């Protein structure tokens, strides 16, 4: 990446007010340092003349819309194609910092077509031969390794230019958002353990052993994942409890003579650990109930929760072992592989192998009927709901008992919050879109999962397991609607549009008309995004006020009374909230929003509605006209 220059870089965090409403939040821009310093001396920095990437003229933007970036961060963010994705990763400075520290030769996981593949960084830099901008996006060129060779997209070339060389289809160019480091080298030199405690002769190490290794000041602890041959001797792959900054553990490759078993270093401490993992968790009596698909908990450093994906025997691992996909994506150590062999599939750092006797049933589900999975997470009917009948929406008087409390709602997992909140909003307390669940379609599997595994359990029991939503996400990904549906976060409206428009083919419930001079345009849509000018004067608005303000300012009318009105609240990324709070309107007066001659309903539509402000979505099916 280029050295320091004479520019100051920013990212635009919110859509500017008119006349600059065409500028999008998430764009990268810059200003000359000399020009900025001059304005700073004159106390004139409330509004800055910045130049957006790809443009040659400057634009006056309010400073509150601009977040400063280092050149390094700006280069990394420029490689992220979507403005919305840039704003999302902007809230994860740790990811930017880790990406800045990567160098050629680092082993990484790279995401490609929904899969995380293993490789080595061979190139870091721009993929543009020429640009008039002061900087361009920085990409990572990765050569795939091992069994992932041949699963890539090129041989190290891009647009007829070679950036590195590798076998055919073993190279991938990706932004930092699709890169995860595999190993982290310790910053301090490691000290060999005392020969009297040597484990290479009397106490051989094996995968699963708890070990300690030493830096120049501190001892570090972790679990052996593998032992590898290296030109400098045998190396131990260790999943550490914490890294050197006290953050969550990572994987380290440590020389064998620098590692010692915890039980040899402190036998008493290990005995306490064994006691807490065994008797404290209920022991073998509980493990008798556990099968593949069971929801379990076990005690590690803290109490952890997960789903059993595999049960069996591992080489060099005593006793029956359970392979878990953990609920906490930062607590695992693998992706379902052990010593290079895959036993089950899960996202990176979500998998963990533990003694089956250390697991017990998840006690958070004591108030929920038990559900068992058939053990094949890729099967279309992996989760079988006990409730097969059609269940009506939850009534107002039942909401507090069925939807409020511990283990209620839809269980989140692996960036599913957008889908969870959308499904909850649409189906928990409203039947206005139930026609989706019963209409004839070629996508019967998706429709069945929605009805039997999500909607019915939510309405009947007030709870849906993450596995049901993951099954839906896998079906969407399997049909190539998007290669990252099982891993990445998306917009709720994007998901709803996909379900309603491309899969279950629902006619758009919303017909809008706009007037431009003497020309009237009519368009149909599935939801309405409320847009607000940045210089509005509303402080604590209601949904009624926002809807009217947005319609009037955009010269819109309703061509007919909609059967369903899905609204998305005004927003400009996570880092900027247009309103601290929005007051829900359980009833909308749309009289003033109807076009002349608009169709009126034959009767009122007293449907139950459910607002869900956490997702930015509001489903309304009750109107006053």
TrEMBL record:
Which SUPFAM superfamilies does the record cross-reference, listed alphabetically? Cap-Gly domain (SSF74924), Cysteine proteinases (SSF54001)
- Spell out the protein name for this chain: ubiquitinyl hydrolase 1
- Which reaction is catalysed here? Thiol-dependent hydrolysis of ester, thioester, amide, peptide and isopeptide bonds formed by the C-terminal Gly of ubiquitin (a 76-residue protein attached to proteins as an intracellular targeting signal)
All residue ranges annotated as the CAP-Gly domain in the record = 130-175, 312-355
Compartments where found: Cytoplasm, Cytoskeleton, Microtubule organizing center, Centrosome; Cytoplasm, Perinuclear region
Enumerate the Gene Ontology biological process terms: proteolysis
Q: Which family does it belong to?
A: Belongs to the peptidase C19 family.
Pfam families given for it? CAP_GLY (PF01302)
EC category name: hydrolase
A GO molecular-function descriptor? metal ion binding
For this UniProt record, the keywords arranged alphabetically read as follows: Cytoplasm, Hydrolase, Metal-binding, Protease, Thiol protease, Ubl conjugation pathway, Zinc
- Which sequence ranges form a coiled-coil region, renumbered to this chain? none
Query: Could you tell me which SMART domains the record lists for this protein?
Result: CAP_GLY (SM01052)
As recorded in UniProt, its EC number(s) are: 3.4.19.12
- Gene3D superfamilies on file: CAP Gly-rich-like domain, Cysteine proteinases
Q: Which GO terms describe its cellular component?
A: centrosome; perinuclear region of cytoplasm
Q: From what organism does this protein derive?
A: Cyprinus carpio carpio
